[in-house]
Every structure is written in structure tokens, then in C-alpha cells.
Structure to design on (271 residues):
């Protein structure tokens, strides 16, 4: 069944958008696609901030650390602060230092994520009772072997985010969820996930911003991470059709509160 972006639905949600104090923006597919910036997104951020709204840029992609995203956003012309950028790696690191203080972690992740964990004071070791896997573009068979052996010996299995594929200019490449599927096939153990759409991400967003979730909107292009984060945690969910979701992918179970062609369509509802 083909659906239309329904302007009457947008009108019904005007009041909801006017009550939003914090916009959490997914990045790839929402404010840019790969290296191509969406000018309406730059305009949206500038307008929202001029009206006193807060912005958090949140990505599940923990293969790069927030400093890399910060530089990318500045280069694209966004009004961004380093403190506004949060990744699923940050959510996972916060959980580790609270739930397993001082304990070493075996990380299946990129050097950028290793640096990020080290900056939180997390020790990294092959002798660990905790395995954390992520979108590891430096993955080796040795890392998989070590992770599986530790998990089979009883280590806790955590993962930064559940995404199966990462979009690139050349199509999809295997992401964290696909790597975890291999580890699960070998060990029979399913990881505990962080990032979108999980509760720990919503909690970190409200802690970082100081704004309650009922005055927060998540804007994103993916149903099972961005929109589900909003639906599962009491935030307003805004789907934009500039990334991976097509209107026919929406059904009664995954439907967002608001569906827009692009993020610029929020601008008239800011006040
Ligand atoms: Mg996206």
C-alpha cells in the first residue's frame, strides 16, 4: 500500500513541535548523506538555536569518535558544539563506568572507539569478564576468536548498537549487528545493546541536556533505531524521508508521530 506524506497529520502535530525544547538529530540520512550536506538541515539548526532550542547530534555509528563528527559538522557549516555530539559508544562507556567500575573490557572496535573508551578511564584487556563489540572496520579473525572464547567462558556480552548495515556512497557495508550475529552464531549468546533505540540512550540524552523526554523530539531516517527510540521512551518521533526509509516501509507498529520529506519542514513549526 502506498502512503502519502499527509499534511493534515503535520498540522495536527504543530502544537507538539511547538512544545519541543530539545531536538535530537540523527546524522547520516537526516542532516547529511555521506559527505553531502543537506542545506535545509544547516538552516534548521541555525533557526532552532536562534529560538533557544537545544540540539544534540546523536549517531549509533561508534566506529568514529565524537571529535571526528565535530570536525565534519563544522566543515559542513553546522552551528555545532563538541558537547552536543553523543554516540552509542558514549552511552556504552557511561554504562560500563557505572555498572562495572574499574573492570577491564575486551573491545571489538576501531582505534577511535578504543581512544574514546580510554578517555572515560576504561581499561582495555584480553583478560576480561566483559566483551563489548561495535562497528569494527578493523575487525580480524583473531578479535572474533578472542571475543567468542571469552563469552563462552562466561564473559558478559555487550554491544554499542544493533544496526545491521551502514549506508555509504557505495551501498551498505556490514555494521555492528552483523558482526554480533557472527559472535551469537558461535556462542549462542545475544548481546545487551546500547545506542538507539535503547533506554540507556534516552536516559543519557535527558541527563546531558537537562530537558525532560516529553519535551524532546528525535529526528531520524531509520524506523528501527531513530523512530523506535522515540516510541519506546516517550519522545516525539519525527521521520524524515531523506535516508533509508521509504514511505511504504511504514506500518501500524513502526509509524512515527510525524513524517516529513526533510528536516527543513520542521522550520515553520518552530517558535
Ligand atoms: Mg540515519
Amino acid at each position: 500500500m502506498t502512503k502519502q506524506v499527509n499534511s493534515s497529520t503535520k498540522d495536527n502535530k504543530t502544537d507538539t513541535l511547538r512544545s519541543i525544547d530539545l531536538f535530537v538529530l540523527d546524522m547520516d540520512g537526516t542532516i547529511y548523506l555521506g559527505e553531502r550536506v543537506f542545506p535545509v538541515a544547516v538552516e534548521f539548526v541555525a533557526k532552532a538555536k536562534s529560538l533557544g532550542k537545544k540540539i544534540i547530534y546523536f549517531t549509533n555509528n561508534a566506529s568514529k569518535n565524537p571529535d571526528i563528527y565535530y570536525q565534519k559538522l563544522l566543515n559542513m557549516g553546522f552551528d555545532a558544539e563538541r558537547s552536543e555530539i553523543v554516540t552509542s559508544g558514549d552511552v556504552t562507556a557511561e554504562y560500563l563506568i557505572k555498572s562495572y567500575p574499574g573492570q577491564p573490557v575486551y573491545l571489538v572496535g576501531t582505534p577511535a572507539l578504543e581512544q574514546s573508551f580510554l578517555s572515560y578511564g576504561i581499561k582495555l584487556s584480553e583478560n576480561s569478564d566483559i566483551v563489548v563489540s561495535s562497528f569494527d572496520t578493523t575487525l580480524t579473525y583473531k578479535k572474533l576468536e578472542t571475543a567468542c572464547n571469552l563469552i563462552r567462558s562466561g564473559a558478559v556480552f555487550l554491544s554499542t548498537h544493533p544496526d545491521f548495515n551502514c549506508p555509504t556512497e557505495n551501498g551498505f557495508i556490514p555494521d555492528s549487528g552483523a558482526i554480533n550475529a557472527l559472535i551469537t552464531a558461535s556462542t549462542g549468546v545475544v548481546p545487551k545493546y546500547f545506542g538507539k533505540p535503547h533506554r540507556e540512550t534516552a536516559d543519557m540524552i535527558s541527563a546531558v541536556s537537562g530537558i525532560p523526554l516529553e519535551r524532546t523530539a528525535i529526528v531520524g531516517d531509520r524506523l528501527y533505531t531513530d523512530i523506535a527510540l522515540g516510541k519506546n521512551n516517550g519522545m516525539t518521533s519525527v521521520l524524515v524521508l531523506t535516508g533509508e526509509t521509504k514511505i511504504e516501509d511504514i506500518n501500524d507498529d513502526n509509524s512515527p508521530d510525524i513524517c516529513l520529506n526533510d528536516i527543513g519542514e520542521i522550520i515553520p513549526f518552530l517558535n
In short: The two ends are 35 Å apart (CA to CA). The longest helix spans residues 39-50. The mean pLDDT is 93.
